[in-house]
Design goal:
Elements: H1 3-20, E1 25-28, E2 42-46, E3 49-58, E4 62-65, H2 66-79, E5 82-89, E6 95-97, E7 103-104, E8 110-113, H3 115-121, E9 123-124, H4 125-131
Parallel strand pairs: 3-5
Antiparallel strand pairs: 1-2, 2-3, 4-8, 5-6, 6-9, 7-8
């Protein structure tokens, strides 16, 4: 399975999790990552509150381009959404991190999220939906 199709599968999985709450609705943003305009992977709404989520998944460590985080931040500011990075590593649950909790890469050009950071700084799906 290609990383792009795995990413799409993870995004659809998260959309379903939000829908199953009965209170949240999520949309997968078409063109995320393929348009020059700022666009998150998912937009989630519940009772007037909006989340903009960049989704990452894999075995262990994921690098996120600074440009993606900048665009997530810009989109969220304009749209009135709370920006988050959702991470699901193999055999783990979804964990959600604030932008300020991400680590910078050694070069400083990108951000890094790994399983330890996600478990230390992130919140679970259930914690997220209780907050929102």
């Amino acid at each position: 399975m290609s990383s792009k199709s795995k990413g799409s599968r993870l995004e659809r999985e998260l959309i379903n999790k939000f829908f199953e709450t009965g209170n949240h609705i999520a949309l997968r943003a078409a063109g995320s990552g393929s348009t020059p305009l700022p666009c998150p992977d998912l937009i989630v709404g519940c009772n007037g509150k909006v989340l903009a989520i960049e989704c990452k998944g894999g075995k262990n460590t994921r690098y996120i381009k600074k440009k993606q985080i900048d665009e997530l931040t810009e989109f969220s500011r304009i749209f009135g959404a709370k920006p988050l990075v959702g991470a699901r590593f193999n055999n783990t649950e979804w964990l959600f991190l604030k932008i300020e909790d991400l680590k910078k890469s050694k070069t400083g050009n990108n951000f890094v999220v790994d399983i330890n950071l996600a478990k230390d700084k992130g919140i679970t799906f259930n914690e997220l939906i209780r907050k929102e």
